[in-house]
Amino acid sequence: MSPSLVGVLVCLAFSAVFSASETAFTSLSIFQIQDLRKRYRQGRIVEKLAREPEVFLSTILIGNNVVNILASVLATEYALARWGDLALGAVTGILTLTVLVFGEVTPKRLAISHNEFIALHTSRFILVLSFLLRPAVAVINFLSSLVTRLFGKTTKVELSLETVTQMLAVAESAGVIDFAKSSMVKNIFRLGAMTVQAVMTHRIDVFSLDCRTTAREAAAAAVDELHSRFPVYDEDPEKIVGVVALKRVLEEVVHGRRDRPIREIMSEPLLVMSTKPLGELFELMKRRKESFAVVLDEYGGLAGVVTMRDVIEEIVGEIYEDGDEEPRERVRRRADGSFTVFGDAPLSLVAGLVGAESPGTVDIQTVAGYVAWILDRIPVEGDVAHTPLGRFTVLKVEANRVEEAVFRPARQGVSETE
User: Fold this and answer.
1) Is the predicted pLDDT of residue 359 greater than 80, yes or no?
2) 100: which DSSP letter?
3) 3-state secondary structure 192-250
């Protein structure tokens, strides 16, 4: 066989390697790169090349162009020597088709299916070549940067929370992760955007006792209300001075100290502001080994109470125990595609139904607060609030706040009637 033909075949082989390497490396996800780094020695080389895409791509393109041009020169030399000028056009066409099929398209398609294997087995070759071609790579990158700056600054692609959420949605649709697990992960991310106000029990619903109440009276009242812990106030229900556990009260009763006032057995309350992010509250409760906190408003008055269970339920959903009331879903789908929502439902939960960001503010975290803010007055039964998320129709109002409403997402049209 002619040395020129051997040279063409060698150049085609290198062209295929360069094309496959380019596609293999550029199609690797950050998770694949980290996995390769942990499992294989060459994985560190793959990571190094992936961290320097400008150097890697320039090396690949220089190598690929050099071998393709050399193949063309060798094929032309062979054609001229064997058949003369008449066959030059035909040889050029055949070589172009061969390079496209065997040096570009086929290697790239194989690399998409076997990107990890190809990246691992070509990484050392590409790394050595990048060192050998370092001067040429530096010049090309410099000239490329000058041209790029003419069209504006470059942006660095980073892994964001939105990207992770989109990846979860893709994994869920592909069946890699089920809906329940995907929802829990999304809820964990949402903790940073939600405040204590969204999940706390409002002060008008808080069960509390005066510090002068005896252990016997406290035990009877707490058992009737099914509370394991409750705040203690001094004359003014707004002035919380402690927290008492039902277990501690019952111990006093069992040991014959029924008339002992609960102020002598109460503990120091954990006080938090209503604007505190849920994620921070969760970390604080774990660090302090507390499961109950008293929530204060901006004036230092009682805003409500929050428990560790309230925070955990925002991740895993409602938790029910023996003796609890009939389970109540804060958002329930209706037959016509709308939703029944309760006023204490977090606004972010409703926003998630339409795939939108929560329009809530630091002071507005629940459906009840959002509807009142949109109406700019105290809601009454039958009120309709048109919002960017959709339409809320108030079904029930208690203590001047929305207790229950019907939510119709905006995608279904806010002009629809119930």
Assistant:
1) no
2) I
3) CCCEHHHCCEEHHHCCCEECCCEHHHHHHHHHHHCCCEEEEEECEEEEEEEEEEHHHHH
The dihedral formed by the CA atoms of 128, 132, 136 and 140, expressed in degrees to the nearest 10: 10
Residue from 366, 203, 204, 369 nearest 296 by CA? 203
- What's the rounded mean pLDDT across residues 235-248? 87
The number of beta carbons lying within 10 Å of the beta carbon of residue 73 is: 14
Output the six-digit token pair for 147: 């041209």
pLDDT at residue number 162: 64
Query: Can you give the pLDDT at residue 407?
Result: 92
Condensed to tens digits (0 to 9), the pLDDT of residues 83-115 reads 766 667 787 788 888 888 888 889 888 888 888
Q: pLDDT confidence of 77, banded at 50, 70, 90? A: confident
Q: Enter the tokens of residue 17.
A: 């390697």
- Write down the H helix ranges in 265-363: 278-288, 308-316, 347-353
Task: Say if residues 79 and 85 touch (Cβ distance below 8 Å).
Answer: no
333 strand-pairing partners: 339
- Within 8 A by CB and 6+ apart from 356, the residues are 388, 389
Rounded to a whole number of angstroms, the distance between the first and last alpha carbons of the chain is: 83
341 close to 404: Cβ distance less than 8 angstroms: yes
Alpha-carbon distance of 89 to 71, in angstroms, equals 15
3-class SS shares of the chain: helix, strand, coil, % to 5: 55, 15, 30
